[in-house]
Write a structure and sequence with these properties.
524 residues; 22% helix; Phosphatase 2c, domain 1; alpha+beta
């Protein structure tokens, strides 16, 4: 054993000291009392010495080869004496070579492994015991015999949980009687069936399209759809517009002669909404083209002057609006006549009736302006009754122009020149002087054009303004049941949806099969 402070012995030092030739031989001691009992006692002392920690003490010269963790006093004593404790002779199993023998204390009796914690099994009733978890078998324990009775604790299958208790009725503890159930609501009235036609008998033609108009591969841009539907909301009004082919045109495969244009010019409160409805001349080729041209040209004219028109509408300048819109309408019909000349057709063939609405987008402006030329209808639904707002104009045959001075007419009335002086003398004498000839007229004078129509009205909340083409204006005036049905459908004052509005406009009446175009304006 090394002294305190020396370098601890290593494996190489122990090997060198063990086989060093200068080392003293550790043979058997020369003690005569070396019996079996002594050796047994020595072995017992060595193995059961009562030390808590294993010891690495050896006897003989090998004691210096292993470092032990004993106190300094014992280490110094063993080194000084050079022999093991009690200075007894080595036992029979101790070899002369001095191989170290390790003394290990007897192992403590192994305790059984702690059982696993019982799993937390929810139990509805507190009286039901929780199932036991079987103790796992240790590796050194033999398996149970086949003939041993089964151990209930070792059964891995937990017992079935008892059924949950029935929920307690909260009303059982309430001494008051239960409140009576509310009576069922009355059944909602069944919606009235929407009719598709008015009158005693249905119309002759089918209600849906059957034939398409003929198409030209080089002129596909001239095709028009069977139905056009549009809508918008500005200021205090809601706009609905629809145009559809009549029953006869659908049956014969003819194009729709009615044209519809909805356009907004500008933005914000100063914006102006234009709705134009045109109908081509009946029984003429290209009637749908002349109607489309009329809508397009009046739209362009209004769009270029929309700022001034919107200002006049908000300011209520009725005279300025009438004169200005009259000029724009005349220019549109002038273009139609020019277009007819380009096509080599008569102006009466390439023309159309034109009716328009101007609506301001300003919420504070409720002035609605109508203008146009030709047939159609302008109606207002107020307080459940229809009002015909079509401006009254004289018949074309009743229109007489004022005499033109200088062509043989005699001026009369206030301010007219008199033929004699205050004294009664005539200014001139009839000397049979030949009068200047009138204008040369080789063809009969054409009849005067249809008069220009204009109306500006102020809308009230709840009003419904309806602008129509001839195809819907005629049945509204000729079949009172049609107006009554539309008034009943629009009685609540709420604007219908686009699909509903289209179904309302398509309400048919026997004997009226022309195209239909209608523009509705619902006032909030």
């Amino acid at each position: 054993m090394s002294q305190q402070g020396d370098r601890p012995a290593t494996t190489d030092d122990w090997w060198g000291r063990l086989y060093d030739e200068s080392a003293r031989d550790t043979g058997p001691a020369g003690t005569p009392d070396d019996t079996i009992d002594d050796r047994f006692d020595s072995a017992a002392d060595t193995l059961g010495g009562g030390d808590d920690l294993p010891s690495t003490r050896t006897y003989g010269h090998a004691v210096d080869a292993i470092a032990v963790d004993d106190d300094e006093d014992d280490a110094g004593d063993d080194e000084d004496e050079g022999v093991g404790p009690a200075s007894r002779p080595p036992a029979w199993w101790e070899s002369p070579g001095g191989r170290p023998v390790t003394r290990t204390p007897a192992p403590a009796p192994e305790s059984a492994p702690a059982p696993a914690p019982e799993p937390s099994v929810p139990t509805p009733a507190p009286a039901a015991p929780a199932p036991l978890t079987p103790r796992p078998r240790a590796p050194w324990e033999p398996p149970p015999a086949a003939f041993d009775p089964p151990d209930p604790a070792a059964d891995p299958t937990p017992p079935p949980a008892p059924p949950p208790a029935a929920p307690r009725d909260p009303r059982a503890a309430d001494p008051r009687p239960p409140a009576p159930a509310p009576p069922p609501p009355p059944p909602a009235p069944a919606p009235a069936a929407r009719i598709s036609h008015v009158g005693d008998s249905p119309p002759t033609y089918e209600p849906e399209p059957t034939a398409l108009p003929a198409a030209d591969a080089e002129e596909l841009d001239q095709l028009v759809a069977d139905t056009v539907l549009d809508g918008a909301r500005y200021g205090t009004y809601t706009l609905r517009a629809a145009s559809l082919r009549g029953d006869s045109a659908r049956y014969r495969g003819e194009p729709r002669r009615d044209a519809l244009l909805t356009a907004r010019f500008g933005a914000g409160p100063g914006a102006l909404v234009l709705v134009a409805v045109a109908t081509g001349a009946r029984a003429t080729e290209g009637a749908h083209l002349s109607a489309a041209d009329a809508c397009r040209w009046i739209g362009g004219a209004v769009g270029r002057s929309h700022s001034r028109l919107a200002e006049d509408i908000r300011a209520g300048r009725r005279g300025d609006l009438k004169s200005g819109l009259h000029r724009l309408t005349d220019r549109t019909y002038g273009k139609l006549r020019a277009r007819a000349a380009e096509l080599g057709r008569d102006p009466e063939e390439y023309t159309a009736s034109l009716r328009c609405l101007l609506l301001s987008a300003d919420p504070d402006c409720r002035t609605r302006v109508f203008f146009g030329v030709g047939g159609g209808g302008l109606f207002r639904l107020r307080d459940g009754a229809w009002q015909d707002l079509e401006p009254l104009v004289p018949e074309p045959s009743a229109i007489r122009g004022a005499p033109v001075v200088g062509y043989g007419s005699v001026p009369t009335g206030a301010g007219a020149a008199t033929e004699q002086t205050p004294d009664g003398d005539r200014l001139t004498m009839d000397l049979e002087i030949t009068k200047a000839p009138g204008p040369l007229v080789e063809e009969p004078v054409p009849p005067p054009p249809e008069p220009f129509r204009f109306r500006a009205s102020v809308a009230r909340p709840g009003d419904t303004l309806l602008l129509t083409s001839v195809g819907l204006a005629e049945p509204l005036r000729g079949v009172p049941a049609l107006g009554d049905e539309l008034a009943a459908r629009w009685a609540d004052g709420e604007p219908p949806g686009l699909a509903t509005y289209l179904a309302d406009v398509a309400l048919r009446a026997k004997g009226y099969a022309d195209d239909r175009t209608a523009v509705g304006v619902w006032e909030a």
